[in-house]
Amino acid sequence: MQLSRRAFLASSLAALSIPTWASSMPIEAQGELFFSAFSKSKTEHFIGAFGSHGKLLWSMPLPDRAHAPVVHPTHSVVGAVARRPGFYMDFFNPFTGQAIQRIEPLAEHHFYGHAVFSQDGTRLITQENHFPTGAGKVVVRAWPEGQVLNEYSSGGIGPHESVLLTPDTLVIANGGLRTHPDNDREIMNLDSMSPNVTFLSLSDGSVINQAQHEPSLHQLSIRHLDVNAQGVVALGFQYQGELWDKVPLVALASVDSDALEYLDMPEHVRARFKQYCGSVCFDKSGKTLAISTPRGGFVAYWDVPTRAFLGVDNCRDVCGLVATNKKDQFVLTSGTGKQLISTPRTQNISQLNQLADIHWDNHLRRIDINI
Amino acid sequence: MSMTKKALTATAALLAASSAFANQWDDTLEQMQSQYIVPKYESFSSSANALADATATLCAAPNSANLATAKQAFNDNLAHWQQVQWLNFGPVTYFMRYYAYEYWPDKKGVTQRQLRTLSMDPSTMTTPKFWTSASIAVRGMTAIESLLYHGDFNVIRKPSDCEVLEAISRHHAQTTHDVLTQWQQSKATDWIFPEEGSTESAEHLVVELLVQQWLEHMSVVKDAKLETPIGYKGQPNLKLAEFYRSEQSLPAIETNLKAYRTLYHLGQPSLFDTAMAEQPELAQALEAALADNVKLALQLPKDYFTGQYTQAERVEMAKPLVQSISNSQTQLTNLVTSMGFQIGFNSRDGD
């Protein structure tokens, strides 16, 4: 089915409650679909989808390297958010191959590689950097029109990833790093950076709560996060200090937290992280937490109720991580093109597929089509 | 020949080729270990022992001659370290040994501060488990250099300073001996973490990791050892140069760059041999880049880091070497990726 842009927008606006993901699904992809950006070379970048057997079902070229996909909650719309400093967000219907929309950041702003739809799919929420001042922003746009509805302070510098805690509460990982697109890998505030996790009201932009490290850990950038059904927020860090410093790399928080609760792990595992967490992900039950580290080449797991460390799955250059619809089960993707499925509590891991010449990018998203 | 026979012959040839290819990495890796890693660690361990002995002699008879001998032993040991510094893999990655060898750059003077504390009561260093909990800032060569060369310490006139020096030197020698022993008693493939569904041989994965280490070290040489202290892109701070007190900053770079060439040609077949068979143009380009690195480093004046040069003069002198190292990073990346090695996609992203 090929819809014109006008027809698609009209149908979207008219029938937001109808899950078009399900009605549009090809037979071979029934069940679930996984989305990720990927690259084939330094100049060939894509967004793509694969099914539960790992076969690539759809892909679209992108103008530049993307970081994370953003998936509409009800309609067959997936977006690719450009890698920091990002200047585009391209949306597609993966079943028609149609390019739906390109969203660009506010003037003198760039994206951070992540975005999220509101729970009802009527708003698109992005994190942006006002690079002349370094102010972190949360920008709320109407979907699919793209008009800016609200522009809030993110509560810090360098808002990287955000997730919805409730329909009205956004949790933001303010990484603390001030950068400028003219030299985007240079950190301009290494000595003064102050990352935090901010709970923000989407109604009025007010800060509901914030939690941060003690001052001696101010270079511990809070970059990625996930939230489970119990309202527990998991946080993965990227340390900007020395490789040899013994710093915590994973923590939990909640909307009531006045401090971060760091998770323990064996020191030899912590050292293997190389001070760098990639993706953060709870399983379906919210009781198993997975954190990937591409620099360490593994995914580490914790039991959330007891905070106990469970173990690791080794995988070179792994970063993409998403929960399946079964408890304690994750799908992993790597820069070497691998797709793995893991059940860490039973220590079962197997390879779904490995796609030659594909480098799966940092983040993986999944939709369940059996809505 | 029928199509079936042709297909079988082709398949057999392919299998033979891939088998030979796999064996090739087996041999290359085995020789990297037996002809480079182990012998270089033997040298490093031997000179660490000599350093420990020299500091013991110095503390027993503190005088200028014995201090000069200890300093020379330190410089010898440092030169051996620079040959294996690129290899942050295997035994050295355990117990923070790699970072304890060299606590650098020590931007906040942690080493001096902790050494002063230890010198107030060196007997604490003989307590059980002292070294298992000791800060990495006082476990290796950065601390030894401070005690031998920093003006705050006087190992001739102050016995407690010398006592600290002797204890650290002995610990450093023991650590190096332990790393050597582990390399002697293991295979390089013992030190990787196997992953599910890997289609590459363990030898391939180790060579891949070694290449990644090599690439990372090239960045350290260019950025941390050369650009940062001279203010190539910002403010100069020569105290950030590696081992600047012992004036070993430039010799360290020269040794590193020479080690790269040795690595490239190590074994039969060497990485260079295999590259020449598969990608002759890229192989030659890397060969030329590595040779240029050494030539350009040797052209820098001996007092490059210590002489009375302005920032602009140092930057101007460094430009050809910086560009050459950068070029060799590109050439190495192009070569190894064309040979099927993964140098990291997400792991080099930083976001």
From TrEMBL, chain A:
It holds the Pfam family DUF1513. It comes from the Bacteria. Keywords: Signal. InterPro entries: Quino_amine_DH_bsu, TAT_signal, UCP028101. Residues 1-22 form the signal peptide. This is DUF1513 domain-containing protein. It comes from Marinomonas aquimarina.
From TrEMBL, chain B:
Its main location: other. Residues 37-331 form the Imelysin-like domain. It comes from the Bacteria. Keywords: Signal. This is Iron-regulated protein A. It comes from Marinomonas aquimarina. Coiled coil: none annotated. GO terms for cellular component: cell envelope. Residues 1-22 form the signal peptide. It is found in: Cell envelope. InterPro entries: Imelysin-like, Imelysin-like_IPPA, Imelysin_sf.
